[in-house]
Design goal:
- The chain has 2 domains: 7-101, no CATH class; 117-225, no CATH class.
- The protein is of the alpha/beta class.
- The strands form 2 sheets. It has a 4-stranded mixed β-sheet with strand order 1-2-4-3. The chain has a 4-stranded mixed β-sheet with strand order 5-6-8-7.
- The N and C termini lie far apart (38 Å).
- The chain contains 8 helices and 8 strands, in the order E-E-H-E-E-H-H-H-E-E-H-E-E-H-H-H.
- A hairpin with a 2-residue loop joins strand 1 (7-14) and strand 2 (17-22).
- The protein is 43% helix and 18% strand.
- Helix 2 runs antiparallel to helix 3 (83-101) and helix 6 runs antiparallel to helix 7 (198-214).
Length: 229
């Protein structure tokens, strides 16, 4: 059976590096469920050496941040730096560009007060019977102001800036994938509420998400089991 390539379109070139927008949903289904917003060869060996991959976004307003990040990460890891060392420098470069964009001021220009997480809310998806509120949030603002590594979703048991009893889903996640991310976050939060460590809960939730990506007919029942009714 022919395997569909993940490429959607080439958007730029930097020296010998080609920058591609790719189908992240396909990659997470077929190759690597942990693939996130972007990647390069020395972090994800299945990416060709001279390519940088950006996941397709629901909106395309963070590409320049991600490209700046990848250029630093790729250069340093090619020179022999560890992923951790390269990530630190790449995050620093990306954070600098995010500050220049004015994102931080959008929710911190409030008389010197700390940023209010409510300001990243975009739409209440649903309030569950157990009191958990699931919000679609501005992923760009979350990454610019709270945590540059925020990806796909999160909840109050992992992120100190997420208000109590809230689950956040990144608005950059395309609609077709939101159910799988929601399942992961609800499953993970429920296990952590019962005393599981993050690492154990995350690993179990990743398995659950991966199974449902391959058996989408099971997603509805899996969500219902986590309180989504």
């Amino acid at each position: 059976m022919e395997i569909k390539p993940p490429y959607i379109k080439k958007i730029d070139e930097r020296g010998d590096l080609k920058i591609w927008v790719v189908d992240g949903a396909l990659i997470r289904e077929k190759t690597d469920e942990e693939f996130t917003n972007f990647g390069q060869h020395y972090r994800y060996p299945y990416i060709p050496e001279h390519e940088l991959w950006l996941d397709q976004e629901a909106s395309e307003d963070e590409r320049h941040f991600f490209i700046d990040h990848l250029l630093v990460e790729h250069r340093l890891m090619k020179a022999g730096k560890t992923y951790g060392e390269a990530l630190t420098e790449a995050d620093r470069a990306e954070r600098k560009e995010r500050r220049r964009s004015g994102d931080v001021k959008k929710i911190t220009d409030n008389g010197g007060k700390l940023p209010n997480p409510v300001d990243v809310h975009k739409e209440l998806w649903k309030k569950l019977e157990n009191g958990i509120s699931v919000w679609i949030v501005s992923g760009r603002l979350v990454r610019s102001v709270f945590d540059i590594d925020f990806t796909a979703g999160g909840h109050d048991k992992v992120y100190e800036f997420v208000p109590e009893n809230e689950v956040w889903i990144d608005d950059d996640i395309v609609e077709i994938e939101r159910g799988y991310i929601l399942l992961h976050e609800l499953h993970e939060r429920n296990r952590m509420t019962n005393g599981w460590t993050y690492n154990k809960a995350h690993a179990e939730s990743s398995k659950m998400e991966y199974r449902c990506r391959h058996h989408p007919d099971e997603l509805h029942d899996a969500l219902a089991a986590e309180g989504w009714a």
